[in-house]
Amino acid sequence: MRFGPFELSVHNHGSLRLDGGGVFGPVPKAVWSGLVAADEDNRVELATRSLIIETGDRTFMVDAGNPDAWPEKLRRIYSFKNFPIEESGRDPATITDIILTHLHFDHSGGITRTRPEGGPPAIRFPNATLYVQTDNYEMARDPHPRERASILRENVRALQRAPLVLTRGSQELHPGIWVHQSDGHTRGLQWVEVRDGDRVVAFPSDLIPTSHHLPLTYGMAYDMSADLLLEEKTAFLKRAVAGGWTLVFTHDTEVAAGRVGVDEKGRFGLAEAVTI
Fold it and tell me: Theoretical Cys-Cys bridge with 97: which of 60, 63, 152, 171, CB 3.0 to 4.6 Å?
């Protein structure tokens, strides 16, 4: 998708399965099961999608998917499927910048790869500068008990071996590429905004993980502050509707991107899917 000075594309690094009740929080299974099928263990499949932004001699990638090595027990629990970016024909060495929306393993785990000879995991993207919000980096170094299972210590340590830029709040990383802090899902999540004049393509990450989470009543049980996330999500969606934004959904297995609408009852929802 050509978007002003940017060439935009998406890459799905693979998938994982999480408990449907965790993914849809307060919404009853009798309702969400009409949207997404659950397996015999009540798990639903989630994509791990990146937005790739090419401009001039820079290639930005937003998020990096799951790690490639897991103990067998966790593989059974999460049913991981990996599709590293090199399998799509793109050389990881050509990625110059990686914006990590947050440091949960399904968004940051793919920055490393397992070494066949053993030892600490290697950086998968040797030429990339990484960007993480300061608050999220500090959280990951001493995670809350509710988030501890979502943080991989080896990935946090790997950040110390890579060029790392700690962002704060709203910040322009490159002309037209902005990050903005959100704290409802996890402290220091950063969603990404790509601007071309009045047009915007946004990557809300786990602020709105799938197109099914556009209605305000849909949230995840994994959100650290449901009240704060609802405030942030409402403000985000009002801007998205008013500006006709295109949103890229990180975890939606069917809809990679789309625009938001409001129905006759004032409820947010998917107005149309968009191909990127």
Answer: 60
- Joined tokens for residue 66: 């799951």
Maximum C-alpha span of the chain: 60
Taking the C-alpha atoms of residue 210 and residue 46, their distance in angstroms, rounded to an integer, is 9
**What gap in Å lies between CA 7 and CA 36, rounded to an integer?**
31
Binning pLDDT at 50, 70 and 90, where does residue 15 land? very high
Reading the block at residue 254, the tokens are: 């069917």
The neighbouring-strand residues paired with 198 are none
**Phi and psi at residue 238, in whole multiples of 5°?**
-60, -40
* Long-range contacts, 150-157 (Cβ 8 Å, 24+): 150/104, 150/105, 150/106, 150/222, 151/103, 151/104, 151/105, 152/67, 152/105, 152/108, 152/109, 154/112, 154/120, 154/121, 155/67, 155/103, 155/105, 155/108, 155/109, 155/111, 155/112, 155/121, 156/103, 157/120
From the list 186, 171, 39, 202, the residue with the least C-alpha distance to 108 is 186
Tell me the Cα Rg of the chain. Answer: 18
Per-residue pLDDT reduced to its tens digit, 228-260 = 999 999 999 999 999 999 999 999 999 999 999
- Alpha-carbon distance of 182 to 235, in angstroms, equals 11
